[in-house]
Structure formats: C-alpha cells, structure tokens
Specification:
It is built from eight helices and 15 strands. The protein is of the alpha+beta class. Strands 8, 9, 12, 13, 14 and 15 form a six-stranded antiparallel sheet that branches. Strands 1-2-3-7-6 form a five-stranded antiparallel sheet. Strands 4-5 form a two-stranded antiparallel ribbon. Strand 4 and strand 5 form a beta hairpin. Helix 1 packs parallel to helix 7.
C-alpha cells in the first residue's frame, strides 16, 4: 500500500461558514438551512475512545462521499436524510431529531474499547447487551448471526454506556414500535453492506448506525453509513491466515489507530500518545482503499486547503 507520506496535505480540522445555528460534533460541523434542511461539513478529524485524536487528510471526503454512496444504495430499505453533496466534504440533508442511542450491529466478536464485545467477554462477562455467550469463544470470529448492541451517546468528556435493546425501550429512550423499526432497518442495511463487502473482498465485522426522525415523525438513517469510521472492514483474503496465526485482521478502518493507542496504554483518559506520521499516512491510504473497493470507483482527491473550496461551494447554494 502506497501511503504517500510526503504528499499528504494538512488535514481539514476546522471550518467556519457564515450560516446560522452552528453545531459541532466529533467529526462534523453542521449549520441550519431553510426548508427544514441542514448543511454538514465532514472534517478530517479522527475520534477514538470518544476523543478527537488527530487529523487524517482526505478522511472527511471519504466519509462524506462513501456515506452518500451507501445512502443511495439503501433507500429501498429505509429512508435517509441525504439530499445533495455540493462539495466532496459537504452534505445537504433533511433536518432530523436524532434518537438518543447509537445502534451498533455486530457480526463478529472483536474490539478493544470498553463497550466492545471482546473487551467485555475477555473480562469474564457472559451476558453482554442482554445476549448470552458461551465459554471458549475466540477473538475476531463470527457470531452465529448479527446482533444489535445499543449504547447511549457519550457527551463531551464522557463515554458511551452499553444498553440492551430491552433497556432502550424500558428507559423510554425510544418507544417500542419505533425501536422495532430501527432494529429491522439496521439489520437489513448491515446485511446489504456485508454482502457488498464480500463481493469486493472485505468482511464487515461490525458497524454503527445513527437514526432520527423528521418533522413528520418518519424514521431516517442519518449521520454516516458503513464507512471506515463507523465500521470495521477486514480484508477477506488474509483473514483466515491471520486468525490462525493469532494476529489481528488486516483492516481498512481506524481500528489500527485504536490498537496503537491501546498498545501505548491509552484507554480514553489522560494525555493522548503521539503516533508516528506513518500511522496517519497509512490510515489515510486505508480509508481511500475502502472507498475504492466498495464503490468500484476511483477516489478523486479534493483540493487542499479544503476551507476555500468548501466556502466557495456553499456560497453557490440557494440558502436564502
């Protein structure tokens, strides 16, 4: 994999647009538009362990454009908020009220964070997210069938809290009928993603979805979909060999960054360890590789610095 370390531009970490109702997320900045719409700018910020760790050039473009591809290829399963992409890092979307839980669909037992299945299983838990697990499971192996493991949305400086589906309803976080629709949609989109992955030599180990409702109460898939940020994508060709050797799967996502941080003793609290330039260059290359495999198109790098082109694109929109 050609990482192109010397050719990487400075990442897009911040954006300032002359629009109202600015809201800042870990990766995205959004603004209000007329007609119940919002404008989202996906930055190059990389988050792990619920913290902003660094910036990875082209990452925001991959997330925005790959999400658009998946939104277009899943509209028959569930409606989504995506309306247009006037710039590689920009999405115009229907304004939605997000649900207060994140929806993680897991097809494999893996992970290194506190909410990961393998972390909790390795610590001795055998009932996790409301599901029973037998003894003797191995890390990075498939589950009998995909399962949904919800979490709360950790705010600034806080971590996500694991929930069972029953707790989501019992706590009144989402009503029973809407939650049933969420679960059905999440499993169906995951299945489609997994099938597409296998067609192009990738394994979808798990993914995070976010859902919301529009002003009329319609369920919408929002935020992003099946990207290297929200998913673990493993290379199928080397999976069996690496599993037999007891090494981690070859991945096209940010799990390598999570593992590098975990190996340095970082679990989300305290100073963030400094990782090498090679780590970030390789991460950028993995994101682009995932995009090109999944969409079967060539990734066209947006012009950097990204701020001026984004401002120009937004200035050309009908926003009054």
């Amino acid at each position: 994999m050609d990482t192109g370390i010397s050719a990487l531009p400075d990442p897009l970490m911040e954006i300032d647009l002359r629009l109202g109702d600015r809201r800042d997320g870990k990766v995205r900045v959004s603004y209000e538009l007329p007609d119940r719409r919002r404008l989202f700018v996906t930055t190059d910020r990389l988050s792990a362990f619920d913290r902003i760790i660094a910036g990875v050039p082209y990452k925001g473009q991959v997330l925005n454009q790959l999400s658009w591809w998946w939104f277009e290829h899943s509209r028959d399963i569930v409606a989504n908020h995506a309306l247009a992409t006037p710039d590689p890092n920009v999405l115009v979307a229907t304004a939605a009220i997000p649900l207060t839980v994140e929806v993680i669909v897991r097809g494999y037992i893996t992970g290194v964070t506190d909410t990961a299945l393998w972390t909790r299983y390795a610590a001795g838990e055998r009932t996790i997210y409301g599901y029973p697990f037998p003894d003797g499971l191995r890390k990075n192996t498939p589950l009998p069938e995909p399962i949904i493991t919800p979490t709360t949305k950790g705010g600034a400086g806080s971590h996500d809290e694991p929930l069972s589906s029953a707790e989501v309803v019992a706590r009144g976080l989402v009503d029973a009928g809407l939650w049933a629709a969420v679960e059905s949609a999440a499993l169906a989109v995951f299945e489609r993603g997994a099938r597409r992955g296998l067609e192009v030599g990738l394994i979808l180990a798990d993914t995070k979805f976010e859902f919301g409702v529009d002003a009329d109460g319609e369920l919408l898939l929002i935020d992003e979909a099946l990207t290297p940020d929200s998913s673990r994508w493993w290379v199928a060709e080397t999976y069996d060999e690496r599993l037999a050797a007891g090494t981690e799967p070859e991945s096209l996502d940010k799990e390598v960054v999570r593992r590098a941080l975990a190996d340095a003793g970082y679990t989300g609290d305290g100073p963030i360890p400094q990782l090498s330039a090679e780590v970030w260059a390789a991460t950028s290359a993995r994101y682009i590789d995932a995009y090109e495999r999944l969409t079967a198109t060539t990734f066209v790098r947006g012009v950097y610095p990204a701020g001026p082109r984004i401002n120009a694109a937004v200035a050309g929109l009908e926003i009054t």
